[in-house]
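If your schedule permits, I should be very grateful for your opinion on a structural question. Kindly check, if you would, that the fold set down in the tokens agrees with what the sequence suggests. Thank you for your consideration; the sequence and its tokens are set out here:
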Amino acid sequence: MAWYWIVLIVVAALFVLTFLVYITNADMKLVSVIYDKLMAYHDSVEKEEKL
């Protein structure tokens, strides 16, 4: 198989993957999960409230 077919297959696979992420809004779902985990962590950390 020629090298350009391999490049074409890789580019097509990346396009399909990014298109699926765009259609399903998966990037913002992942950001929301990470945000919730970070909020829970930072809420549980002891804070010094010194004025």
